[in-house]
């Protein structure tokens, strides 16, 4: 099975630790993941902000880079949702691009889907002795319906104390350019999410999307809350009891 | 555009569709003020969370909810595809049952028709059943110009009218008010409109309801003309249907001798049987009730009474022509999307500058009114695209997709265009992205804590992530994917 990692531009540029964790994790599970060098960005920011032409260009590029693999693993619920939900709409009903989109969409998995559905593992052999809460990001929850997969995986992590997040299914207020275009509402939503996170007493907040975590974590850091945010992959990739595991919110 | 300034004719469907509120400042500016109003935030949080939880529990107990929802979507889709046929059938059935049917292309035409009908009765006062269509066309204000006073009889609409306020929710128009504020409004304003509030009025909900009951009862008994909308209009039988919770609507629908109903053309349903689906979907989605408390249905007019149906277009035909946006016409005005929306919960309805607020308003208003004003262009962005609205919509309107489609249709501000073009240029080649990442990595220690220009909106409330010294792709190259 040829497996491609679509790391996403946000992870590639700002959170390379997440990409490295995915590689570590998949190797540990016997998957020799490849990194197609031509990949850049799925185009979601352009699509959702109303720049359809640029989004189509980036979608064409991504599909061209990713076609031919048996599986594409994406460590982001949001970018996986972009490929699966929006690419078919951008491609239209028929034609060579639509056909290529169909083939890529059929094998595109968010990381936890790949682990649970394709590899059939729920215990990935991770150890992370910390108190953790999980925020189901909107696109992983309502876009691609990850359901219990992330929680199932987290429950098997050695030493991990999983605490439920109140109001977990409510949006954190990131929303891509929404965070800038409607910054006041975005911050108001984030403030409620931050309060919920602090209420859990967790030392780490994790999620399937670094973009949302950058937003929530940015406010947690601004408040000097001491709560770290980490991508799910970094917890699942942690094999040894990691004393200084994870990154402080504003560092790696 | 202000009408009359350069001798144009009054607002019409061809220029700007009037939607009951003046289009003013863009959404983000309205919202910024709203999120700082702690009383408003508290009222909205409490109210939306209560209704949201109630809806969730009564929807969860219906085993075939998904099938019902799909049936609702399918019936509406079919009706909209054959709207011409069903509207003519409705007209025929209503006329055969003794009613009169009028066609209004826009708000001005509808208001003119209604005013003419009221004047013909010789009356100068009308009672109103809660209705979105008449809010949309600004009927009360228009009637006032003809010397006709319209009295709202829905409790929440009464609060809004007495308070010289605007509705902020489709089903619960006074959701932004708490009971202390309502007591103030009743005590101060009721006397100016009719029977005053009792002197010892408290903010106890029962006392407030009693004050409204006494105030309205006088009105019901002496008013000869009523104006309503309708939730559904059955083409097969010519029956109009109104769902309400208080019985005040039924008072208006039965006591007066003349009834005028203003109904959007998308409200038609083919057959009586279709009501089976919608009378289940609507109450559970809207107020979280298993069955609607007061469901009034009438067909034409009985002897000694007169019934007029005004069928309203006001931009709907234009929406129908749009392949993506037309699904907004399936809306049954349940407000489930408002109640679940994290943006609406924090801004309230006034920020949307339309009688249709919340997620449905964000796709309906710009389509009906067009995107000529800054406010209307800003509405499709009044969403984080979290998708909660789509999940709860009883007729499966894919609101996020329509929002994204609308965003692609209006011009963007130039700094954003420049930023997006630059980002697109970098992302079009992986080599360019890699070079930019390396430059960022080298300059990482110079990154400012606060960003300039529009990007300051991020750093006003959130720290920036640190730029890593090495991107993922450079790490992959340097270590051969971690093998070295």
What would your notes on this structure say?
The complex is a heterodimer of chains A (about 250) and B (about 475). Chain A folds into 2 domains: about 5-120, no CATH class; about 130-235. In chain A, the strands form 2 sheets. Chain A has a 4-stranded parallel β-sheet, with helices on both faces. In chain A, strands 6-5-7-8 form a 4-stranded parallel β-sheet, sandwiched between helices. The radius of gyration of chain A is 17 Å and the shape is globular. Chain A has helices spanning about 10-15, 15-30, 45-50, 50-65, 75-90, 95-105, 110-120, 140-145, 150-155, 180, 185-200, 210-220, 230-235, and strands spanning about 5, 35, 70-75, 110, 130-135, 160-165, 205, 230. With about 250 residues, chain A is of the alpha/beta class. In chain A, helix 4 (about 50-65) crosses helix 5 (about 75-90). With about 475 residues, chain B is an alpha/beta fold. Chain B has 2 domains: about 1-410, Rossmann fold, CATH 3.40.50; about 415-480, no CATH class. Chain B has 23 helices and 10 strands. Chain B has helices at about 25-35, 40-60, 65-80, 85-95, 105-120, 130-135, 140-145, 155-160, 180-195, 205-220, 250-255, 275-285, 315-320, 335-340, 340-345, 360-370, 375-380, 390, 400-405, 415-425, 430-440, 455-460, 470-480; strands at about 100-105, 125-130, 150, 225-230, 230-235, 240-245, 260-265, 270, 295-300, 305-310. In chain B, strands 1-10-7-4-2-3 form a 6-stranded parallel β-sheet, sandwiched between helices. Classes of the chains: A alpha/beta (about 250), B alpha/beta (about 475). At the A-B interface, helix 1, helix 2, strand 2, helix 3 and helix 4 of A face helix 1, helix 15, helix 18, helix 19 and helix 20 of B. Chain A: GO terms for molecular function: oxidoreductase activity. Chain A: This is (Fe-S)-binding protein. Chain A: It comes from Microbispora triticiradicis. Chain A: InterPro entries: Cys_rich_dom (IPR004017).
Q: What are the SSEs and their pairings?
A:
The complex is a heterodimer of chains A (252) and B (484).
Chain A: E1 3-5, H1 9-14, H2 16-28, E2 33-34, H3 44-49, H4 52-66, E3 71-74, H5 77-91, H6 96-106, E4 108-110, H7 111-118, E5 131-134, H8 138-143, H9 149-155, E6 161-163, H10 178-181, H11 183-200, E7 204-207, H12 210-222, E8 228-231, H13 232-237
Parallel strand pairs in A: 1-2, 1-3, 3-4, 5-6, 5-7, 7-8
Helix pairs in contact in A: 4-5, 4-6, 5-6, 11-12
Chain B: H1 27-35, H2 38-60, H3 65-81, H4 83-96, E1 100-104, H5 107-121, E2 125-128, H6 132-136, H7 139-145, E3 149-152, H8 155-162, H9 179-193, H10 205-222, E4 225-228, E5 232-234, E6 239-244, H11 248-254, E7 258-264, E8 268-269, H12 275-286, E9 294-299, E10 306-312, H13 316-320, H14 336-340, H15 342-347, H16 358-369, H17 374-378, H18 388-392, H19 399-407, H20 414-427, H21 430-442, H22 456-459, H23 472-479
Parallel strand pairs in B: 1-10, 2-3, 2-4, 4-7, 5-8, 7-10
Antiparallel strand pairs in B: 5-6, 6-9
């Amino acid at each position: 099975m040829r497996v491609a990692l679509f790391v996403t531009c946000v992870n590639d540029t700002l959170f390379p630790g997440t990409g490295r964790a995915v590689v570590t994790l998949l190797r540990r599970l016997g998957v020799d993941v490849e990194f197609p060098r031509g990949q850049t960005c799925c185009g979601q920011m352009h699509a959702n902000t109303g720049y359809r032409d640029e989004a189509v260009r980036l979608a064409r590029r991504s599909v061209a880079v990713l076609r031919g693999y048996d599986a594409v693993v994406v460590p982001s619920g949001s970018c996986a949702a972009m490929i699966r939900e929006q690419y078919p709409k951008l491609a239209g009903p028929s034609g060579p691009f639509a056909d290529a989109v169909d083939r890529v969409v059929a094998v595109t998995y968010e990381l936890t889907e790949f682990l649970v559905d394709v590899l059939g593992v729920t215990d990935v052999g991770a150890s992370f002795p910390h108190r953790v809460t999980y925020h189901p990001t909107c696109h992983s929850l309502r876009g691609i319906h990850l359901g219990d997969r992330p929680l199932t995986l987290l429950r098997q992590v050695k030493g991990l104390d999983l605490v439920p997040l109140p109001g977990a299914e409510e949006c954190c207020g990131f929303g891509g350019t929404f965070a800038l275009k409607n910054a006041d509402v975005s911050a108001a939503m984030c403030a409620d999410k931050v309060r919920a996170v602090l209420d859990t007493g967790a030392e780490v907040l994790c999620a399937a999307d670094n973009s949302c975590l950058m937003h929530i974590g940015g406010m947690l850091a601004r408040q000097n809350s001491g709560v770290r945010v980490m991508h799910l992959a970094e917890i699942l990739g942690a094999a040894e009891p990691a004393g200084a595991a994870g990154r402080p919110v504003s560092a790696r | 555009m202000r009408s009359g300034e350069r001798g144009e004719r009054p607002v019409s469907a061809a220029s700007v569709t009037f939607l009951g509120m003046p289009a003013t400042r863009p959404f983000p500016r309205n919202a910024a003020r709203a999120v700082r109003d702690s009383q408003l935030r508290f009222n909205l949080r409490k109210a939306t969370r209560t209704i949201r939880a109630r809806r969730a529990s009564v929807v969860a107990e219906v085993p075939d909810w998904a099938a019902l929802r799909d049936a609702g979507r399918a019936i509406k889709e079919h009706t909209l595809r054959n709207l011409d046929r069903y509207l003519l059938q409705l007209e025929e059935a209503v006329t055969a049952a003794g009613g009169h049917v009028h066609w209004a292309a826009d708000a001005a035409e509808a208001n003119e028709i209604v005013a003419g009908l009221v004047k013909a009765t010789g009356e100068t006062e009308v009672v109103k059943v809660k209705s979105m269509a008449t809010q949309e066309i600004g009927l009360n204000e228009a009637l006032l110009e003809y010397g006709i006073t319209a009295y709202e009889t829905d409790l929440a609409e009464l609060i809004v009218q007495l308070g010289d306020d605007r509705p902020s929710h489709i089903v619960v128009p006074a959701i932004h008010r708490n009971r202390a504020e309502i007591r103030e409004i009743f005590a101060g304003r009721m006397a100016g409109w009719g029977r005053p509030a009792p002197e010892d009025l408290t903010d106890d909900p029962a006392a407030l309801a009693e004050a409204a009951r006494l105030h309205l009862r006088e009105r019901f008994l002496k008013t000869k003309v009523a104006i309503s909308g309708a939730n559904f209009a059955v083409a097969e039988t010519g029956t109009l249907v109104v769902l309400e919770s208080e019985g005040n609507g039924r008072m208006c629908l039965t006591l007066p001798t003349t009834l005028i109903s203003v109904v959007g053309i998308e409200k038609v349903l083919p057959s009586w049987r279709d009501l089976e689906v919608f009378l289940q979907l609507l109450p559970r989605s809207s107020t979280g009730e298993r069955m609607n408390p007061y469901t009034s249905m009438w067909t034409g007019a009985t002897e000694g009474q007169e019934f007029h149906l005004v069928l309203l277009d006001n931009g709907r035909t234009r929406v129908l022509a749009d392949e993506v946006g037309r699904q907004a016409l399936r809306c049954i005005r349940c407000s489930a999307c408002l109640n679940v929306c994290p943006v609406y919960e924090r801004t309230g309805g006034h920020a949307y500058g339309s009688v249709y607020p919340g997620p449905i308003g964000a796709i309906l208003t710009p389509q009906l009114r067009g995107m000529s004003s800054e406010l209307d262009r800003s509405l499709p962005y009044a969403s984080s695209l979290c998708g909660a609205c789509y999940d709860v919509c009883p007729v499966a309107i894919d609101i996020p997709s329509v929002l994204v489609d609308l965003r692609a249709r209006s011009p963007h501000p130039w700094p954003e265009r420049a930023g997006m073009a630059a980002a697109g240029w970098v992302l079009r080649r992986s080599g360019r992205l890699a070079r930019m990442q390396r430059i960022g990595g080298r300059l990482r220690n110079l990154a400012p804590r606060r960003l300039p220009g529009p990007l300051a909106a991020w750093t006003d409330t959130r720290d920036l992530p640190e730029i890593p010294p090495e991107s993922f792709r450079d790490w992959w190259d340097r270590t051969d994917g971690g093998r070295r």
